[in-house]
Amino acid sequence: MPEPGSRWWTVPEMVGILSNKIQKDELKPGDHIYSWRNAYLYAHHGIYVGDGMVIHFTRGAGQEVGTGTVLDRFIFSSSPSRPSDSPCPRCGDQSKAEGVMSSCLECFLYGGELYLFQYGVSPGLFIAKTRGGTCTLAPSDPPEHVLHRAEFLLQNGFGVYNIFKNNCEDFAIYCKTGLLVFTNISVGRSGQATSFLAATTAIVSSPLRFLTTSVSGLAAVGYGVYCVSRFVSDIGVRRDVTKIPVERLVVCPGSQESEPATTDASKENPGSQESEPAATDASKEKES
Question: Where do the LRAT domain residues begin and end (predicted)?
């Protein structure tokens, strides 16, 4: 029996521990979706906007931020890579595309399976899903806000792609929550990036590893450090985030910053939890 005040996990939650896989006919506009690449090495994320289309953030050729070698493109580039001589009839040739772009669902998946990123999960479920980049404790905003942000960023960009601070998962999480990290000393919102750093911390940085010499003991200590590091780095619990309306994001031409810049007004009030309107002031005036 569960303890007072607790509840049993639902069947979808229990199944979700193993997989977030969904069918295409289950998709709804505003869903944050992802697909694993290169034998589950990493996942590519985007926002489903309806009519079989996905808005997502990619790195292009020559824009890699990582090892500085061709290996970066092999591992991390997520631009649709159909041969230029047989482009997608809906998307055209996007093999050299970069930044925020719109692709059909088939090009986005690139032969992979379809998964749904989960929002507002319980701490227990978050810890149970040991692979990062699949869920967050942060709640999602309404679909109309999500779609508004995605469409706005499709026209205005989302800064320079960076594996650890401004990647495709960061883009999708911002569209879903409106949250941005306002410090420059930590990773972005991406669960994949925080999981990688958490694993590194668990292996080489924890002084607790000296408390035991057994293999099982080291594994337990390492897993514990990994889980705690993932939890405190999640966008739903960390304190170095603020809610920024998408209209106040500024992508400076020629800027070398890895994250979208914000206006001076947003910097003056980093703790603001201002909610984003579903429409601009101009549209509201027209409606009235």
Answer: 34-184
pTM (2 decimals)? 0.71
Quick one: how far is CA 251 from the chain centroid? 19
Superfamily of domain 24-248: endopeptidase domain like (from Nostoc punctiforme) (3.90.1720.10)
Question: What is the spatial distance between Cα 63 and Cα 99, in angstroms, rounded to a whole number?
Answer: 10
Q: Which active-site residues does the annotation give?
A: 44, 56, 168
State pLDDT tens for residues 134-164: 999 999 999 999 999 999 999 999 988 888 7
pLDDT at 240: 85
Candidates 192, 191, 194, 229; CA nearest to 208 is 229
Sorted by where each begins, the domain ranges of the chain are 24-248
DSSP 15-34: HHHH--B--GGG--TT-EEE
**CA dist 128 → 45, 58, 185, 231, 284 (Å):** 21, 29, 28, 11, 44
Burial class, 222, CB count within 10 angstroms (exposed 0-12 / middle 13-18 / buried 19+): middle
